[in-house]
């Protein structure tokens, strides 16, 4: 039987101060929700159900409401991902410049079997994303928050190697 | 030749003149380049006078809608006793568009200055700059620049010693194209799902937090200090064709083209020269087949149409498309139009907020049919179905994402029907695409 | 407020400014097909079904959201509007499973109704349908996600009316569905209304699951008897068995809603452990014999009446007359439960007094007591106890009264083997009125046939009164009510006709 570790609140100490500072920017608590979810994701790597309950209680919202928001925005992860979350843009402007080849190169290089699955060594998860707003620098790739421009299949091995 | 290349002689670098210049990023660097003079001037002016200058200049919203900016500002009159808000729309997510990110990462203070001038003109003490979550560098640069501006007294309770309060906050998005729609942006800012709102009420009456709000695009706001510095006439005279389209425009050039990048030309510039001279034309050994000149939501142009276009709001409309955001997507003769139209439909299906029936279901349905055609399993009846769905998706929803999905489908079937028919009759995709790197040699 | 005149489908309509086209059309008897709009909920205008053609407007306008304007000319059934609706219906059906044969909503489904009226006869969809599993939302509600048309009425009801935002839309695009949070169920006392609000078979009552087809149901307008709020209801029966209660609209009492407790507490209306024939000392007797035996029991003894606060005004009125005539006394007790308001509606709650006609019992001279056992314990053989449909749940001690007469639907065990039993109908088997806690007198109609030889309480009491020497020749309940109204100032001027189906407040 595995016992789950008790949930450790995110909004304590420095992060609580960060949230309080954010709350000062908006006339409603609800408006601090997206920034608060970013704090959670930056602290834990993903937004768990327990974290949703915590932020709901801190901001006087219901957990269901928070869930509705979290599931709307694609950048919040609702389950853990690899250490490096690789997002390759494949929308048309990059698509016509070979973005799909870049995706295939990443899957090969990271040994991820499928899109959305984490590599056996837990380092990488590779997904396709929609337009990253750097179309003139095809193909742009984000690895976590790192934004890399002009990726080609040839430059993929070095990129993967650089992310230990 | 458009950042990241050096400026082409036929460009008119106003907003882009400091792209690539790392010294322009800091507040002192911006000041050295003439920055914050316009804000100083504005703070000494009556708000309505600033709005009138912007009106006179002919500046139109650069996010894609092209609504006259001065007119938009005039909807929100200062002095009604309510807190006013300015939202800067930095959600730049229209495929093919990447100009706002350049403004923010190279000249963050240009945007801050534009916001501050606009905020003063509209009596908005608080401005939120809503930046899409994926824009790591612009977020860093804008956040740092705002911090600088506060510590140098440009922003805050006593902006530039004027006694007026101008607050600017950077707000990070979390991955939703629809939040670039101004009412969806407001909902997202409020901490809600990014659903567009029904109108009325209009934002200028009841916007964020139920208060009067104006939403402007990054490029629009960045143009404002230049207009104040050089005058409305100066801006109006940047006009090569239709008098209703004035000033300069940033175009994001991408796809199958020799020199992709961000170019700035005066309204009315000939598109043929732009594509072949400034941007270098198609990749070596290929020909252009189609151009989408204003981001994914505008009709696809044939080369015949594109090469006869004058680049302004009216000029693009005259040649079967729209200026939109100015995201110029170049497609060469090695690409499969059916595949790309399907890919665009897939984009819209992914981004639909799910409120309106026609959009929620129609975007996904359209995607499935086009992908089926691309896989060689389509019929001619499918083309009729696609057009019928597109008609149902047009003019019937809360926002225009639905219409936008229909656009590439309708223009694609209209102008590239032969490619669709080839997939249908040959029962396969006749293109083995060898994607070209957009940079030539 | 200025009034506006406009033309809808060729008819002139005159409504206050600010009215929506959809509501204005209602006043002319024109239904603009819609899903997401509901008069009790905020307007999202997202289903796009209600798009109408407004002359001179550049696009079709959503009728639920667009305000009327002077000289507007609106077409609900023009070719353009019909085509738009047909398009919406088609889009709703592409992922909708062909569940009609197994779906509870069939026969009362707005997707079926509008599709039959105006939808396509065939499907052009050739792709795989999206699939989501069925979910138990808790309480009485299950969610069949595949059938959901995302109208969001349920989400808006829970948030804006119940003030308990436990439902949300989750995901985006065609992946969107209604969700709740893990371990946060739909346990709000008024949550069952979402089943009512759902236009299709996505939200279903577990209680009603697979019980009956909508077209097999007979319906009668009624009043919920389970507390003093007096929510207006419809009793639905199948083969003379009550299978469902649904709220009936009354702007002054319950708007569009009823609570889960009332909604689900109808099984007692189908009880089989009833007395269905008159009896004396355990032996079957015919009515005239039984009534005579009752009079005998009353003669020469002090009358003590234990009345149920579930009895109708008509029954309590006659019972009160009997008490007066025989110089007796009457009491009633009221079962209690926790009060549960519906916060978003003024003055609407599941009341702590869990009986239909507490006010009536008070008005007709009965004294409210907390524990009738005290009264019963004090009875001697000089007393006669008349038990008027009060089971007194939990009581077991037989009273030492000289005689017991039971006029009710059941014969409680503590009344022993010797009472005179005159069997009566329950509220679903008769016509009558209740008075709610705000003094509103409301009619309920007969929904099913009574069992055996049972007769309405007012009819039995009329016989008893006549046998006791008092004129009480009432053939139908409206006559009883007329007598009631004539003799009680609070009810003066009321009649079944004036009460109609909305009721009226006593003076």
Describe the structure.
Chain A is of the alpha+beta class. Chain A folds into two domains: 13-72, NADH-quinone oxidoreductase subunit E (Arc Repressor Mutant, subunit A, Orthogonal Bundle), CATH 1.10.10.1590; 84-162, Glutaredoxin (3-Layer(aba) Sandwich). Helices cover 40% and strands 11% of the residues of chain A. Chain A is built from seven helices and four strands. A four-stranded mixed β-sheet of chain A has the order 2-1-3-4, with helices on one face. In chain A, helix 3 crosses helix 4. The longest helix of chain A has 12 residues, at 33-44. Chain B has three domains: 34-237, Rossmann fold; 248-332, Ubiquitin-like (UB roll), CATH 3.10.20.600; 337-426, de novo design (two linked rop proteins), CATH 1.20.1440.230. Chain B has 18 helices and eleven strands. Chain B has helices spanning 27-32, 37-43, 47-57, 69-74, 99-106, 108-122, 136-151, 182-189, 218-230, 232-237, 271-278, 303-307, 313-318, 337-351, 357-374, 380-392, 401-415, 417-426; strands at 84-90, 124-131, 167-172, 213-217, 248-255, 261-266, 269-270, 288-292, 301-302, 310-311, 327-332. In chain B, strand 2 (124-131), helix 7 and strand 3 form a beta-alpha-beta unit. The longest helix of chain B has 18 residues, at 357-374. In chain C, helix 2 crosses helix 3 (110-118) and helix 8 crosses helix 12 (477-487). The mean pLDDT of chain C is 97. Chains A and B meet through helix 2, helix 4 and helix 5 of A and strand 3, strand 5, strand 11 and helix 14 of B.
Tally of domains of chain A: 2
CATH C-level of the largest domain in chain A: Alpha Beta
One letter per element, helices H and strands E, the order of chain A comes to HHHHEHHEEEH
Q: Uncertain regions of chain A: pLDDT < 50 for 5+ in a row?
A: none
- Domains counted in the coordinates of chain C: how many? 3
Features:
heterotrimer; B: 441 residues; alpha/beta; Rossmann fold; Ubiquitin-like (UB roll); de novo design (two linked rop proteins); 3 domains; 5-stranded mixed β-sheet; 4-stranded parallel β-sheet; 18 helices; 13% strand; globular; C: 507 residues; alpha+beta; Alpha-Beta Plaits; 8-stranded mixed β-sheet; 21% strand
Record the SSE blueprint.
The complex is a heterotrimer of chains A (about 160), B (about 450) and C (about 500).
Chain A (H helix, E strand, L loop, with lengths): L12 H11 L9 H12 L4 H10 L4 H10 L11 E6 L2 H4 L3 H12 L13 E6 L11 E3 L2 E3 L7 H7 L2
Parallel strand pairs in A: 1-2
Antiparallel strand pairs in A: 1-3, 3-4
Chain B lengths: L26 H6 L4 H7 L3 H11 L11 H6 L9 E7 L8 H8 L1 H15 L1 E8 L4 H16 L15 E6 L9 H8 L23 E5 H13 L1 H6 L10 E8 L5 E6 L2 E2 H8 L9 E5 L8 E2 H5 L2 E2 L1 H6 L8 E6 L4 H15 L5 H18 L5 H13 L8 H15 L1 H10 L15
Parallel strand pairs in B: 1-2, 1-4, 2-3, 5-11
Antiparallel strand pairs in B: 5-6, 7-10, 8-9, 8-11
Chain C lengths: L2 E6 L2 E6 L4 H7 L23 E4 L6 E2 L10 E3 L3 H16 L15 H9 L15 E5 L2 E4 L8 H9 L5 E4 L6 E4 L12 H5 L5 E3 L12 E6 L8 E7 L2 E7 L12 H5 L14 E2 L2 E2 L2 H12 L3 E6 L5 H13 L3 E4 L7 E2 L7 E2 L7 H6 L3 E2 L3 H6 L5 E6 L14 E6 L11 E4 L8 E4 L4 E5 L12 H11 L9 H11 L8 H4 L4 E2 L2
């Amino acid at each position: 039987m595995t016992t789950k570790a008790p949930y450790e609140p995110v909004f304590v100490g420095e992060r609580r101060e960060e949230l309080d500072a954010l709350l000062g920017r908006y006339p409603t608590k609800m408006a601090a929700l997206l920034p608060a979810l970013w704090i959670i994701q930056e602290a834990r790597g993903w937004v768990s159900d327990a974290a949703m309950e915590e932020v709901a209680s801190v901001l006087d919202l219901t957990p269901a409401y928070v869930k509705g928001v979290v599931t709307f925005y694609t950048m919040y992860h609702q389950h853990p991902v690899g250490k490096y979350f690789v997002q390759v843009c494949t929308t048309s402007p990059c698509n016509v410049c070979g973005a799909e080849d870049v995706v295939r190169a990443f899957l090969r290089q990271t040994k991820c079997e499928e899109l959305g699955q984490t590599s056996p060594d837990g380092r990488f998860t590779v997904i396709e994303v929609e337009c990253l707003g750097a179309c003139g620098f095809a193909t742009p790739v984000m690895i976590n928050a790192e934004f890399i421009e002009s990726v080609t299949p040839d430059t993929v091995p070095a990129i993967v190697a650089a992310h230990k | 030749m458009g950042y990241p290349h050096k400026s082409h002689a036929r460009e008119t670098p106003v907003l882009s003149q400091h792209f690539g210049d790392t010294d322009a990023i800091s507040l002192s660097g911006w000041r050295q380049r003439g920055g914050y003079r316009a804000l100083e001037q504005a703070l000494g002016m009556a708000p309505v006078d600033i709005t009138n200058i912007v009106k006179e200049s002919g500046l139109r919203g650069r996010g894609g809608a092209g609504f006259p900016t001065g007119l938009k500002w005039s909807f929100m009159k200062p002095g009604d006793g309510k807190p006013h808000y300015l939202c800067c729309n930095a959600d730049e997510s229209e495929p093919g568009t990447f100009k706002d990110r350049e403004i923010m990462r190279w000249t963050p203070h240009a945007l801050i200055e534009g916001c501050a001038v606009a905020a003063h003109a509209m009596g908005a003490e608080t401005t939120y700059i809503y930046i899409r979550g994926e824009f790591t560098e612009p977020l860093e640069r804008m956040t740092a620049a705002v911090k600088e501006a506060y510590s140098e007294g440009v922003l805050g309770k006593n902006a530039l010693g004027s006694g007026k309060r101008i607050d600017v906050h950077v707000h990070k998005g979390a991955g939703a194209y629809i939040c670039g729609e101004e009412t969806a942006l407001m909902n997202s800012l409020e901490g809600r799902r990014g659903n567009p709102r029904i109108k009325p009420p209009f934002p200028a009456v009841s916007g964020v937090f139920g208060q009067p709000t104006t939403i402007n695009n990054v490029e629009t706001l960045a143009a404002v200090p230049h207009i104040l510095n050089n005058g409305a006439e100066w801006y109006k005279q940047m006009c090569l064709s239709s008098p209703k389209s004035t000033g300069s425009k940033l175009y994001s050039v991408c796809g199958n083209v020799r020199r992709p990048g961000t170019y700035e030309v005066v309204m009315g510039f000939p598109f043929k020269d732009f594509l072949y001279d400034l941007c270098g034309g198609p990749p070596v050994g290929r020909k252009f087949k189609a151009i989408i000149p204003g981001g994914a939501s505008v009709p696809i142009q044939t080369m015949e149409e594109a090469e006869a276009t004058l680049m302004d709001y009216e000029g693009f409309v005259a040649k079967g498309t729209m200026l939109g955001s100015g995201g110029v997507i170049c497609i060469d003769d090695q690409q499969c139009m059916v595949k790309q139209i399907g890919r665009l439909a897939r984009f819209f299906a992914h981004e639909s907020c799910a409120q309106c029936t026609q959009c929620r279901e129609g975007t996904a349905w359209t995607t499935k049919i086009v992908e089926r055609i691309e896989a060689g399993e389509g019929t001619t009846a499918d083309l009729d179905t696609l057009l019928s769905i597109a008609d149902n998706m047009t003019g019937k929803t809360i926002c225009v994402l639905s219409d936008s999905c229909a656009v590439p489908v309708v223009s694609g079937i209209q102008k590239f029907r032969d490619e669709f028919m080839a997939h249908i009759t040959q029962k396969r995709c006749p293109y083995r695409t060898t994607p070209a790197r957009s940079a030539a040699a | 407020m200025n009034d506006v005149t406009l033309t809808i489908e060729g008819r002139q309509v005159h409504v206050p400014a600010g009215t929506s086209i959809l509501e204005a059309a209602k006043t002319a008897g024109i239904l603009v097909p819609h899903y997401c709009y509901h008069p009790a909920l905020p307007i999202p205008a997202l289903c796009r079904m209600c798009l109408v053609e407004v002359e001179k407007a550049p696009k079709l306008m959503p009728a639920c959201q667009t305000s009327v304007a002077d000289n507007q000319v609106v077409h609900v059934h023009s070719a353009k509007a019909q085509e738009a609706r047909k398009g919406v219906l088609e889009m709703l059906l592409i992922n909708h499973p062909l569940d009609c044969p197994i779906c509870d909503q069939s026969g009362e489904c707005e997707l079926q109704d509008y599709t039959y009226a105006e939808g396509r006869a065939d499907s052009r969809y050739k792709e795989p349908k999206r699939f989501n599993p069925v979910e138990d939302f808790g309480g009485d509600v299950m969610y069949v996600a595949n059938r959901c048309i995302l109208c969001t009425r349920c989400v808006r009801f829970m948030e804006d009316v119940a003030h308990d935002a436990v439902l949300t839309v989750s995901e985006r695009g065609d992946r969107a569905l209604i969700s709740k949070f893990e371990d946060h169920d739909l346990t709000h006392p008024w949550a069952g209304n979402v089943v009512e609000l759902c236009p299709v078979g996505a939200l279903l009552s577990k209680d009603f699951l697979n019980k009956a087809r909508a077209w097999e149901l007979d319906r009668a307008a009624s009043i919920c008897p389970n507390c003093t709020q007096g929510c207006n209801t419809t009793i639905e029966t199948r083969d003379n068995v009550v299978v469902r209660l649904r709220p009936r609209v009354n702007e002054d009492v319950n708007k569009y809603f009823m609570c889960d407790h009332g909604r689900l507490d109808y099984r007692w209306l189908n009880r089989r452990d009833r007395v269905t024939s008159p009896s004396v000392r355990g032996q079957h007797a015919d009515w005239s014999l039984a009534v005579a035996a009752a009079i005998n029991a009353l003669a020469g003894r002090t009358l003590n009446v234990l009345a149920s606060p579930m009895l109708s005004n008509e029954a309590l009125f006659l019972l009160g007359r009997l008490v007066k005539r025989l110089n007796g006394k009457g009491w009633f007790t009221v079962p209690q439960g926790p009060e549960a308001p519906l916060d978003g509606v003024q003055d609407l709650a599941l009341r702590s007094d869990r009986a239909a006609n507490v006010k009536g019992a008070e008005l007709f001279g009965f004294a409210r007591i907390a524990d009738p056992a005290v009264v019963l314990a004090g009875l001697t053989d000089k007393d006669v106890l008349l038990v008027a449909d009060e089971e007194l749940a939990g009581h077991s001690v037989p009273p030492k009264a000289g005689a017991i007469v039971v006029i009710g639907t059941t014969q409680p065990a503590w009344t022993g083997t010797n009472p005179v039993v005159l069997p009566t109908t329950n509220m679903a088997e008769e016509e009558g009125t209740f008075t709610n806690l705000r003094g509103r007198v409301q009619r309920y109609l007969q929904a099913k046939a009574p069992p055996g030889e049972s007769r309405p309480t007012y009819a039995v009491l009329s016989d008893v009164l006549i046998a006791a020497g008092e004129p009480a020749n009432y053939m139908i309940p409206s006559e009883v009510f007329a007598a009631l109204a004539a003799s009680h100032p609070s009810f003066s001027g009321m009649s079944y006709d004036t009460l109609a189906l909305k009721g009226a407040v006593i003076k």
